[in-house]
Amino acid sequence: MTRIQIIMGTTRTGRFSERVAPWAVQRLKDRGFEVELVDLRDYPLPFFDQKPPSVTLRDYPTPEVARLGRKLDEAEGFVILTGEYNHGYPAVLKNAMDHTFIEWRRKPVAFIGWGGVGGARAIEQLREVAVEFEMAPMRHAVHILPEDIRPAMKSKDPGDFSVFERIEPKLAALAEGLEWWARTLSAGRAD
Ligand SMILES: Cc1cc2nc3c(=O)[nH]c(=O)nc-3n(C[C@H](O)[C@H](O)[C@H](O)COP(=O)(O)O)c2cc1C
């Protein structure tokens, strides 16, 4: 089974990622992945002020960074859940990424975003960041638009996935690509 992690890239009070995460976890499990949710709230880190992790690799400067690094190491691929803040990705997500490097390298990453344009600007920027990590960013993404966000905010039941019905085919395309890349790059890394 392909082991992926879903990274909750927003941590603010009242975050919409809380609505998206249970749906993404369930649907990707339904598609045969072994899924773990990694909530950045559980990995609080100071603003990055260390030597470059692309140089220090797994020589972790603090136990907190080691905890995140060892967790990310377990994944064969990632799905990043991201809101859009001022036309960019959340700083908390970039800070966590900057604290690490090798753990992401040569693995695929797919994106689920939301906002006025479905998080498209944040996701496009994250694809560029991913390339610097030598990751394979997936073409297929899920963009959750205001017309999907509104019913999801109204529905009080976080287990009510019917609100995301319209975007299910997008998640299916994302999953298909992610599975191939995760399997293929896992084999490549093992060589
Ligand atoms: C500081 C801030 C800046 C935002 N800027 C944008 C933006 O540039 N584009 C957009 O579509 N939505 C923007 N929004 C709205 C967010 O997309 C929306 O609040 C979303 O739910 C954020 O994800 P979260 O709830 O998981 O934190 C912004 C929200 C915040 C809090």
From TrEMBL:
<dbReference type="GO" id="GO:0005829">
    <property type="term" value="C:cytosol"/>
</dbReference>
<feature type="domain" description="NADPH-dependent FMN reductase-like">
    <location>
        <begin position="3"/>
        <end position="142"/>
    </location>
</feature>
<dbReference type="InterPro" id="IPR029039">
    <property type="entry name" value="Flavoprotein-like_sf"/>
</dbReference>
<dbReference type="InterPro" id="IPR005025">
    <property type="entry name" value="FMN_Rdtase-like_dom"/>
</dbReference>
<dbReference type="Pfam" id="PF03358">
    <property type="entry name" value="FMN_red"/>
</dbReference>
<protein>
    <submittedName>
        <fullName>NAD(P)H-dependent oxidoreductase</fullName>
    </submittedName>
</protein>
<dbReference type="InterPro" id="IPR050712">
    <property type="entry name" value="NAD(P)H-dep_reductase"/>
</dbReference>
<dbReference type="GO" id="GO:0010181">
    <property type="term" value="F:FMN binding"/>
</dbReference>
<dbReference type="GO" id="GO:0016491">
    <property type="term" value="F:oxidoreductase activity"/>
</dbReference>
